[in-house]
Design goal:
The complex is a heterodimer of chains A (about 500) and B (about 500). By secondary structure, chain A is α+β, with helices and mostly antiparallel strands. Helix content of chain A is about 40%, strand content about 20%. Chain B is an alpha/beta fold and about 500 residues long. Chain B is about 40% helix and about 10% strand. The chains are: A alpha+beta (about 500), B alpha/beta (about 500).
Chain lengths: ~500, ~500
């Protein structure tokens, strides 16, 4: 593998001075139907290999496909949510190519008659001048079946060539997929990586809202191919690369950025960009060449003769349209108003992948300001450090609600609260368990605090004198000593009040 | 009727055997044993069967006899033996499609046709020979050697369903199943003096029928009499939710039609384009005589023209190979069937290639290449696309003809059975055999071949083809049974009684 060989890149800002990036995104989403696209087999993730199969999804001789009506419905709902036209009549097509993960050596897909076409999705990216909206135009949304999953054993390439043997799991074969293809995205300039990320995020949230897929990028139920080409300013579009396996939101952004930098260097050197598929590497953030598409594969598409056309009635389409849920952008606007926050603050939540968590935390009774502060501050930092998704942290909205309640009644300070969460994140238990285990209670009773104060005054008689003399700001040194003595488990404000009262000094 | 003698059992029709079983005159085990003995006796010469499942057949027969004795209500074909073309999957039973690439494949599931046969109590004797993946008109393209025509063992039994037609003509079974993509039921019926029906496309489920060309393939009944074909048709036909192209409508009452045999007042069209030049003299003679009989029986016979039929063969040999090239892609040695050249060093592509090189015969490779070409980028519109347009024109020709007449008739084949080897090196000559049968497959309607006598110059059977509109299958049986009754009346027996002793 050539993962870390030096690939020449041009600094991003410099690249953007000479070239205009053109993007195209192809997104595959596994639908969350109970059964597969063309047979009754279960679709559950994680079953023992080749246990969720039948003659049809194994492509046995003589077997025939039957269209899953729920998958058609989900695709139409997705198309409607993307403002697409819905075909009144369309057919499936066979995409012919030989590969061992394809039981029939053809994939049932759609070709020139997609079920949904000509739509758009508006996305918002944060810029220095505030949020900016982009309209990403949708070329098509079509249905197809997933392939099996290959695992290559032996060899050191991780690919089929060079492997000692390969294992195939056909549980995934025939799982309904929808493919969403954008029209070329132009004019984003330096925002191109952010637009790409915002688009995939928006698409994911839309599908989650529609309930058509669990859209887990980490489990492969949402997979993204990123096409990038560069055009010298004012000139026709260049040759594109197609980066596969871009399977996190952050990677989408990084892959676009990397390809812009790489292609700009190639073009500036007077060379040409090769039309090829490339692989994205999470570790290095680079792409490396895969299969060259110089000899374009001929898939010999033709209408699938084993299936009858799909012809959704207008009544059905309208019925589906009328039951569409609130789209994410509308939901964000509503929550922004409900919480009384700014566009920028909302954008921060969205960028942090924290919107749902914050919403749930508020629903658990936490003040919106505190909910936002915890998720976008402390927890985002921890998640980034650990390289995991915010939602995969051990902390829950209920934990935050408990901690906030303890802060309110004076049992915890902000500082102690952070220590509680540190324990929760480390898997030490829930909030109360961590408090008990770590002994994290505010030293609250006045006599304990008073003896600590008297001790501190005795240790620093000169400071005590200054305070008595009216230099109230000198109180900090005594409070600090008390906090130190109580190992930070005292409420500093309370210590200060007690101290001043003890010395008979007014604030 | 008189009690059936054991020695005659194999020559009886399914309807006769059924009546005798119901009357307690004979058991299914007796009939099945008689067929198995006949297979034992003659199949060395005929080679109709690729696989005989003696034990399962006898067990099924015994089970039917037991149920009948217990007073169970059984269908008319319960206990009747049948020869199954080797293109239908049957759980645990070898299913080769006549190909070496599936030499040892035993499917884990039953085709819908087999399911329905089992449910009707039909005794499946075994699997019959065929041209590899149903590509051919002679069974010479079988990976397991050709089948011989019982009328003359030096001649072809037709194809691709030559095993099924020969099994009937050799009295190895009273019933057989075939599939018809361009004539593979009707042409073998014609050249063996038997009856074969291609039902309306979608009339019989294709689930478990190993596909040649999905938009053309149709399973159908083969028998020695029209009534027997109707009885089998009734068992296998009807909607199947597992086949999306299956028609969700009542099956026409083919058995009643076969029993009526009344053509008075029916309008029958002679297709001008299917006859005349290129058709053997004796074939034309017997065809003309049969048409005269239909006129005598009170039918109104007129000539109609279907001008686009002349393009049918060309369109067919673009559409069929295109679909076949895709349908046969799955035979790659990865999951089942033959795997060749997996020496530990070969790449997956090399193993796929070696497997297909070793496992497929020449005709299959020829059609895969034709089909791959016609679907290729840059050629699709000129070949596959144009062929689909021709298909539409042919369907329109039929529609226009059926405005004027109830059924159309033609000779089933241009000639009687040719000699084994005669056309093996000339694919075009072989393809021309199906010139009269192909239009029906392209349009998706239905047709039957019935025997109308022996050609005077060679003493070999001639078939007449009856064509009806989609879902007009009952019309085939009305005309077929009327013609059969008149001819049996004239001859004193069904035509297969004249098959020479083997």
């Amino acid at each position: 593998m050539s993962g870390s060989t030096a690939i020449t890149r041009m600094p991003f800002d410099q690249a953007l001075q000479s070239f205009e990036p053109v993007l195209g995104l192809e997104t595959h989403v596994e639908l969350g139907t109970a059964s597969k696209m063309f047979c009754g087999c279960a679709t559950e993730f994680g079953g023992a290999p080749n246990t969720q199969v039948c003659p049809t999804c194994l492509g046995l001789p003589g077997s025939l496909p039957v269209v899953n009506a729920v998958a058609v419905e989900s695709t139409i709902r997705m198309g409607l949510a993307l403002h697409c036209d819905i075909a009144s009549w369309c057919r499936f097509a066979r995409k012919n190519y030989f590969y061992p993960d394809m039981p029939k050596d053809y994939q049932i897909s759609q070709y020139d008659e997609p079920l949904c076409f000509d739509g758009y999705l508006d996305v918002v990216v944060a810029t220095d001048d505030g949020p900016r909206e982009f309209r990403v135009e949708i070329e098509r949304v079509h249905m197809e079946e997933d392939t099996g999953k290959l695992t290559h054993a032996g060899g050191d390439t991780g690919r089929i060539h060079g492997a000692d043997y390969s294992l195939v799991d056909y549980n995934r074969a025939g799982i309904p997929l929808i493919e969403i293809v954008t029209k070329p995205i132009v004019g984003a300039g330096s925002l191109a990586p952010l637009v790409a990320r915002a688009y995939v995020t928006e698409l994911r949230d839309l599908m989650r809202a529609l309930g058509v897929s669990d859209v887990r990028m980490d489990q492969g139920s949402l997979r993204c191919d990123v096409n990038v080409s560069l055009a010298p300013a004012g000139e026709p579009w260049g040759t594109r690369s197609e980066t596969k396996n871009v399977n996190s939101l952050r990677s989408v952004e990084r892959a676009v950025r990397f390809e812009i930098e790489r292609q700009a260097a190639v073009l500036t050197d007077g060379e040409r960009v090769v039309q090829e598929t490339r692989h994205f590497h999470e570790d290095t953030g680079e792409t490396t060449p895969g299969r060259s598409k110089e000899h374009a594969e001929d898939y010999r598409y033709f209408p699938e003769p084993d299936l009858v056309p799909v012809a959704p009635s207008e009544d059905w389409i309208e019925q589906l349209r009328s039951t569409l849920p609130e789209v994410p952008s509308a939901r964000r606007a509503r929550l922004r108003d409900e919480w009384g926050i700014s566009d920028l603050e909302m954008q921060t939540l969205v960028n942090a992948e924290a919107l749902e968590l914050v919403e749930a935390t508020i629903a658990a009774g936490v003040d919106q300001g505190a909910a936002r502060k915890w998720w976008t501050g402390e927890f985002t930092r921890v998640a980034n450090e650990q390289g995991v998704a915010l939602e995969d942290l051990r902390v829950t909205p209920a934990h935050i609600a408990r901690v906030e309640a303890l802060i309110t009644d004076g049992s915890l300070t902000d500082k102690l609260a952070r220590s509680v969460f540190e324990g929760v994140l480390a898997g030490e238990g829930d909030v109360d368990q961590v408090i008990a285990e770590r002994g994290l209670v505010v030293v609250g009773d006045d006599s304990t605090l008073m003896s600590a104060i008297e001790q501190a005054l005795a240790d620093q008689p000169d400071v005590a004198e200054k305070i008595r003399g009216g230099k109230v700001q000198a109180a900090g040194a005594i409070v600090g000593a008390v906090m130190k003595a109580t190992k930070g488990q005292a409420d500093a404000a309370k210590v200060r009040t007690l101290l001043l009262a003890h010395l008979g000094v007014e604030e | 009727m008189a009690p059936v003698m054991d020695s005659d059992l194999v020559r009886q029709s399914a309807a006769t055997l059924s009546a005798a079983m119901q009357a307690g005159e004979v058991t299914s085990v007796q009939v099945t044993e008689a067929c198995l003995a006949r297979i034992e006796e003659v199949d060395d010469k005929v080679h109709a069967f690729l696989h005989v499942d003696r034990e399962t057949a006898l067990a099924t027969a015994a089970d039917i006899d037991t149920r009948r004795a217990a007073g169970a209500e059984l269908g008319p074909l319960a206990g009747i033996p049948l020869a199954l073309k080797d293109v239908f999957t049957m759980r645990g039973v070898p299913t080769t499609c006549g190909s070496r690439i599936l030499a040892d494949w035993r499917p884990p599931y039953d085709s819908t046709v087999v399911e329905r046969l089992r449910a009707a109590g039909v005794v499946i004797l075994g699997k019959t020979n065929m041209d590899e993946f149903a590509m051919g008109s002679s069974t010479e393209h079988s990976g397991y050697g050709p089948t011989h025509n019982p009328w003359d063992l030096e001649r072809i039994p037709g194809g691709s369903g030559g095993g099924s037609s020969a099994a009937l003509a050799a009295f190895e079974a009273p019933l057989a199943m075939g599939t018809d993509t361009g004539g593979s039921i009707r042409q073998p019926a014609a050249v063996t003096g038997t009856v074969g029906v291609k039902p309306t496309y979608g009339g019989v489920s294709r689930y478990g029928l190993v596909a040649l060309a999905s938009s053309l393939d149709q399973a159908g009944p083969c028998a020695r009499t029209v009534l027997d074909a109707a009885l089998l048709h009734e068992v296998i036909a009807g909607h199947d939710p597992r086949d999306s192209t299956s028609i969700d409508a009542p099956v026409p009452d083919v058995v009643a039609a076969a029993r009526s045999g009344d053509v008075r007042g029916m309008r029958i069209g002679l297709v001008r384009e299917l006859g005349g030049e290129g058709y053997q003299q004796g074939v034309r003679q017997r065809f003309d005589e049969a048409v005269a009989i239909l006129t005598d029986l009170g039918a109104d016979v007129v000539e109609v023209s279907c001008p686009n039929f002349e393009y049918a063969l060309g369109a067919y040999y673009l559409i069929l190979p295109a679909e076949a090239s895709s349908n046969l892609a799955r035979f790659d040695g990865m999951r089942y069937g033959l795997r060749a050249g997996d020496d530990g060093d070969a790449s997956v592509e090399e193993v796929m290639s070696r497997t297909r090189e070793a496992g497929f015969g020449a005709e299959v490779k020829r059609r895969i290449m034709l089909g791959t070409y016609s679907l290729s980028s840059g050629y699709y519109d000129a070949y596959y696309g144009q062929a689909q347009k021709v298909r539409t024109l042919i369907a329109r020709d039929f529609a226009a003809a059926f405005e004027q007449v109830d059924v159309l008739v033609s000779p089933t084949t241009p000639t009687t059975a040719f000699r084994l080897g005669e056309k093996l090196d000339d694919p075009l000559a072989m393809y021309l055999n199906d010139i009269a049968t192909i239009p029906v497959n392209l349009a998706g309607n239905c047709a039957m071949s019935v025997p109308v006598g022996l050609s005077p110059e060679d003493g070999l059977p001639v078939g007449l083809q009856i064509m009806a509109p989609a879902l007009g299958d009952d019309r085939l049986y009305r005309v077929g049974s009327a013609l059969e009754a008149a001819l049996v009346d004239r001859w004193g027996h069904v035509l297969t009684e004249e098959v020479p002793a083997l």
